[in-house]
Amino acid sequence: MGQKVAGTCYVKVDGMQLTLKGGMEAPLSDKTRETVVPGYFKEEDVAPFIKVTAVHTPGFPLKKLVDGTNMTITGEFKNGKVYTLSGAYMVEQPTSNGEEGTIELQFDGIKGVWS
Questions:
Q1: Rounded to whole angstroms, what are the CA distances from 32 to 28, 45, 82?
Q2: Can you spell out the DSSP letters for 48-97?
Q3: InterPro entries, alphabetically (predicted)?
Q4: 15 vs 12, 73, 74, 103, 112, CA distance in Å?
Q5: Residue 4: its pLDDT value, please?
């Protein structure tokens, strides 16, 4: 029996749903490891984040997203997993693709939780 693992994702920023096109990304771990020599590694924290490709609608709340510094972002993936980013703020420069009608957004935050 097949199981759904991909498809339309949903994201809400402070309760306001954005229309997405394409994907959504969130980290699966809060750290990265790199081998220094076999058997020894260094470990670094990974900032919790969420990246989305949203439809750049005429009423898109860009100013609210740019100005927000303590937002809650909830991303619902098609496989049923939910990632909640708290204390979120926009990082990177948002970019608009006029040909596709989309806008690329990335948010970092204080805490990211999978459920």
A1: 10, 6, 21
A2: -EEEEEEE--TT--HHHHHH-SSEEEEEE-TTS-EEEEEEEEEEEEEEEE
A3: Phage_Mu_GpM_tail_tub
A4: 5, 8, 8, 19, 17
A5: 54
- Tell me the two tokens of residue 68: 């927000």
Q: What pLDDT score does 8 carry?
A: 65
pTM of this prediction? 0.85
Backbone angles phi, psi at 99, to 5 degrees: -70, -40
Q: How far apart are CA 2 and CA 5, in angstroms?
A: 9
Which among 18, 70, 67, 73 is positioned nearest to 49, based on CA atoms? 73
pLDDT tens readout for residues 21-45: 877 899 999 999 999 999 999 999 9
Evaluate the CA torsion angle 92, 67, 24, 100 in order and state its sign. Answer: negative
Nearest-CA neighbor of 71 among 13, 10, 3, 7?
13
Low-confidence ranges of the chain (pLDDT < 50): none
